[in-house]
Write a structure and sequence with these properties.
The protein has 586 residues and is α/β, with parallel strands linked by helices. β23 and β24 form a beta hairpin. The two termini are 30 Å apart. The N terminus and C terminus are likely disordered. The protein has 13 helices and 25 strands. The chain folds into 2 domains: 275 residues, Rossmann fold (3-Layer(aba) Sandwich), CATH 3.40.50; 177 residues, Beta Barrel (Ribosomal Protein L25, Chain P), CATH 2.40.240. Bound molecules: adenosine-5'-triphosphate and magnesium ion. Adenosine-5'-triphosphate binds next to α2, β8 and α9.
């Protein structure tokens, strides 16, 4: 399987066409908008909206929608509203509203003054409903929820009309007013659109517009005890705001006739057009808010911002940049085809971005002492180290070097295989930014038998990592000076879900059985170079030869540094094998 979509591939831009910073490819939504503009619709205006329901944190799928909606507004000199779709009082919370605003801003988009709430339209939506009743297009039904379901019919059988369907307009108006006044209990009455109980599209079989819910709302408090349904509130909210193009995901395609019906039967100021696109799905990634909430509530992750979460707050804490996420959204494009994109696509984008700007530092995750026998005891020297070979403007820093260092335990083998170019008895390697050292002996712990330290010698003539006689040293290792290094905890992440088995959909009921038990590995006792003491929380680095890491924004302190691995280096070992060298730093 290539790294494009598993289904609906072919519409995806090929990986080769993905240059960094490339403009997003044209897509069918742009074609629709351009045709509308050419036809002079909406007076040349383009107005979109991003309409999250504040019942969870935003995830990478939402980012696709945000980039699309705000991006189209930017492209066509239009506007994009941030609208909270807060018509359901039971699941919505202020915490979610705040997190959504923070995340949209962090992604780099600005809704200026255009922050709206569907709940602000409750009175207007009520008046529209009265208008529908007056026009004989809506009625109060007194069937129970079960009966309504039963009367609805099935895909193969038409529904039946409710005995209450032909109530008079005055009776409907009276009952609807009393619903609002709180006279009826939940489930006793609903307001329904009067459309067609035999419609092939089930959404058109007299859908419910309002139900009684005796619940306080996070914005309107106790003002209401009836709440509008999404399919009714959404087109009218769009119309009230003057939206021209209402972009949503494919599951709403079958709802579009209802969307249009609401607009057609009311005196609305504007007739927005609904356009559907395929939602983003990623392999090995939980993407529904309901499941993400479950992970949080059941303590399966540390919170919405757990670095393994596909939420924007999780990705941010993990080390993702807004630029990497925006570039990813641009590259994957917009299609009408449901597919599952390989999650590696997201990771490639992050590497590309961080490669350009993350300063290189050295960190030893599994330290092994290395003593340089011919280096004077008590001496320290400061070596110059380049901060980023990809960015000459990034300058250099000073690195302390001394007699006792730490190197990576994995970089030593007592019985080295062929083509092992790292440390082994008798092998000479380059220490990045420093000197050539030759391993003389591995000293074992008498009790445990484990290797305790390496005894080495260095060649003072190789300062900076080159030799005058031009002798070749293939391996280049990272290291830190033991006396100067800082302790750190490093958290290594893997995907939340294990690889899906054949035919196993992400939506399977037992999705939790696929939770990857190895998604978090905490490595303590790591040693990092001293300059990291003052690194800001949230700042990102390349740990040479290991990957990109981010200072944890929640748990890291100068006294106890905590790093999250954002992403490993690209195929690092494969590349090294091909180059014929065992390891190369920087
Ligand atoms: P979920 O299915 O994860 O619960 P949702 O669709 O219920 O998400 P909303 O808050 O209603 O979440 O979504 C706000 C906007 O983001 C909607 O316009 C929706 O279509 C879009 N959106 C949600 N998930 C995705 C996704 N995976 N890919 C693209 N757009 C998405
Ligand atoms: Mg939704």
């Amino acid at each position: 399987m290539s790294d494009s979509t598993r289904a609906g591939a072919g519409r995806e831009p090929s990986a080769a066409a993905e240059g960094a910073g490339e403009a997003p490819a044209a897509n069918f939504i742009r074609e629709i908008i351009e045709a509308d503009l050419a036809a002079g619709k909406n007076g040349g205006r383009v107005a979109t909206r991003f309409p999250p329901e504040p019942n969870g944190y935003l995830h990478i799928g939402h980012a696709k929608s945000i980039c699309l909606n705000f991006g189209l507004a930017q492209r066509y000199g239009g506007t994009c509203n941030l609208r909270f779709d807060d018509t359901n009082p039971s699941k919505e919370e202020v915490e979610y509203v705040e997190s959504i605003k923070h995340d949209v801003r962090w992604l780099g988009f600005d809704w200026a003054q255009r922050e709206y709430y569907a709940s602000d339209y409750f009175e207007q939506l009520y008046q529209y409903a009265v208008q529908l009743i007056e026009r004989g297009k809506a009625y109060v039904d007194s069937l129970s929820a079960d009966q309504i379901r039963e009367y609805r019919g099935t895909l193969t059988q038409p529904g039946r009309e409710s005995p209450y369907r032909n109530r008079s307009v005055p009776e409907n108006l009276d009952l609807f007013r009393r619903m609002r006044a709180g006279e009826f209990e939940e489930g006793t009455h609903v307001l329904r659109a009067k459309i067609d109980m035999a419609a092939p599209n089930m959404n058109m079989r007299d859908p419910t517009l309002y139900r009684v819910l005796k619940q306080a709302h996070h914005r309107t408090g106790d003002a209401w005890c009836i709440y509008p349904m999404y399919d009714y509130a959404h087109p009218l909210s769009d119309a009230i705001e003057g939206i021209t193009h209402s972009i949503c995901t494919l599951e709403f395609e079958d709802h579009r006739p209802l969307y249009d019906w609401c607009l057609a039967h009311l005196d609305v100021p504007c007739r927005p057009r609904q356009i559907e696109f395929a939602r983003l799905n990623l392999t090995r990634t939980v993407m529904s808010k309901r499941k993400l909430l479950q992970l949080v509530q059941e303590g399966l992750v540390s919170g919405w911002d757990d670095p393994r979460m596909p939420t924007l707050s999780g990705l941010r804490r993990r080390g993702y940049t807004p630029e990497a996420i925006r570039a990813f959204c641009d590259r994957i494009g917009v299609t009408k085809f449901e597919g599952v994109l390989d999650v590696s696509r997201l990771e490639h984008g992050l590497r590309d971005d961080l490669n350009k700007r993350a300063p290189r530092v050295m960190a030893v995750l599994h330290p092994l002492r290395l003593v340089i026998e011919n280096y004077p005891e008590g001496q320290t020297e400061e070596l110059d180290a380049e901060n980023n070979p990809e960015d000459p403007g990034a300058g250099t820093r000073k690195l302390p070097f001394s007699r006792v260092l730490y190197v990576e335990r994995d970089d030593f083998r007592e019985d080295a295989p062929k083509k092992w170019y790292r440390l082994a008895p008798g092998m000479e390697v380059r220490l990045k930014h420093a000197y050539y050292v030759t391993c003389r002996e591995a000293v074992r712990d008498e009790k445990s038998g484990a290797i305790r330290e390496l005894r080495c010698t260095y060649d003072p003539a190789t300062k900076g990592g080159g030799s005058e006689d031009g002798r070749k040293v293939r391996g280049t290792l990272h290291w830190v000076s033991a006396a100067h290094a800082l302790d750190a905890e490093v958290r290594l992440y893997d995907h939340l879900l294990s690889e899906a088995g054949p035919g196993e959909a992400d939506e399977s009921a037992d999705w939790k059985a696929r939770l990857n038990p190895g998604s978090l590995e905490v490595v303590t006792g790591c040693k990092v170079e001293p300059g990291l003491k003052t690194a800001d929380r949230g700042s990102r680095f390349q740990f040479l030869r290991q990957g990109y890491f981010c200072v944890d924004s929640v748990d890291s302190t100068p006294e106890r540094l905590v790093f999250n691995r954002a992403v490993a280096l690209r195929d690092s070992w494969a590349k090294i094998e091909r180059a014929g060298g065992p390891s190369s730093a920087g």
